[in-house]
Each structure stands twice: as C-alpha cells, then as structure tokens.
Amino acid sequence: FDPRHYLGTHWHGFPKTGPHRLRFLLESVKDLRETLKKKGSTLVVRNGKPEDVVCDLITQLGSVSAVVFHEEVREIL
C-alpha cells in the first residue's frame, strides 16, 4: 500500500482513496491472500513507497530474475 494514495490529490484536495474504496481494497487483498494460501502460495503485503519497498524485497529475496509493474495513468488537465 503506497501511503501517497491516502493523501489529498494534487489538484483538488479530495482523498484519492476514500473509506469505501479502502475497505474494498482491504477485503480484496484478504480474499486474494486466502485464495493463494489454499493453493499453497502466499501474498506479500507491504506499506510504503513502492520504489523503496520493491528494492527492499529484492534484497531480502536475494535471487530475483525479473520485476514487473504498472504505472498509474494520470490525467493531464
């Protein structure tokens, strides 16, 4: 979870992630973790800036051959 998603937006000061969206995200992550656990896997969840968290995870895991990510599309007004 990127803490920057829970601050006001740059343009309007509205929360980027309101309480309903946050609840949906938390329930979705919980469900995904439970589903993966039933299949013998796991889900790593971290709180922090992705550019820091991913680097830390790579260091902890030691042998990472690829990292895949997506970047949020931002609307330019």
Q: What is the strand content?
A: under 5%
Main pleated-sheet profile? none
**What is the count of helical runs?**
2
How many domains? The number is: 1
> If you consult CATH, what is the topology?
Rossmann fold
Q: Give me the strand/helix succession.
A: HH
Mean pLDDT: 85
* Structural class by helix and strand composition: mainly alpha
CATH architecture: 3-Layer(aba) Sandwich
Assembly state? single chain
Query: How far do the termini sit from each other?
Result: 26 Å
Nearest-angstrom radius of gyration? Answer: 15 Å
CATH superfamily annotation: HUPs
Number of strands: 0
- Helicity, in percent? 40-55%
Poorly predicted segments = none
Overview of the molecule:
With 77 residues, this protein is an all-alpha fold. It has one domain (3-61): HUPs (Rossmann fold), CATH 3.40.50.620. Helix content is 42%, strand content 0%. It is globular. 0% of the residues are buried. One of its GO terms (biological process) is photoreactive repair. Pfam families: DNA_photolyase (PF00875).
